[in-house]
Each structure stands twice: as C-alpha cells, then as structure tokens.
Amino acid sequence: MNSRLFKHPVMAAGLMALLGLSGQALAHNPMCECKSVKDGQIRCTGGFSDGSGAPGVTLDVIGYDETILVPGKLGADSSMTFKRPDAEFYVLFDAGPGHIVEIDQADIEAP
Length: 111
Known about the structure:
Blueprint: H1 9-26, E1 30-37, E2 41-48, E3 58-63, E4 68-70, E5 79-83, E6 89-94, E7 100-104
C-alpha cells in the first residue's frame, strides 16, 4: 500500500473506515434451522449470524428431482411451517448470492 495515503489524515481515516466496514459485511452469515413439529409439520426458522432476522427471505422445499414442492417466504417472525412432503426433499434458504443454506430431510430434527 502506498504510504503517502497515510500522510493525509482525511485519506487515512477514510481508508481505515472502509477497511473496518468490509469486515462487518463478511460477518453476516446465513443461518437456518428446521424441526419436525406436531401433525407431520416442519417449522424452519432463518436469520443471520449478526442476530438479525430474515422476514421475506425465500425458503423453498425442493424435491430431489429439483421440482419445487412447497414455494415460500419466511414470515414476519422469520419462520415458515409446512406439511412434510411425501417425496424426498431438501429445504433451500436463499437470501441471495453467498447467503444460501441447504438442509436435507435427513438433517431435520424429530419432535
């Protein structure tokens, strides 16, 4: 890095602020958990590692043949409940590029 940038205090402060923000942007990892609940239902809850929720984020239930079995979005409480499909499936939490979580049916906790 060019040492002349640090000789001007405003440039140095701006550069340090940008470097600090880049670390914060990377600490925003997606998280999703699915559990079996009563009556053959599954409840999935999504969010981010910084503690923020994910209302409105796409959560689709997809068959192993790549057909969408249950299209959906997380509700205001960052969760979605659906009937367990008869076909083999996985859950796809998709908050955009680099923010995707897949949960296979075998990894869904029993009640």
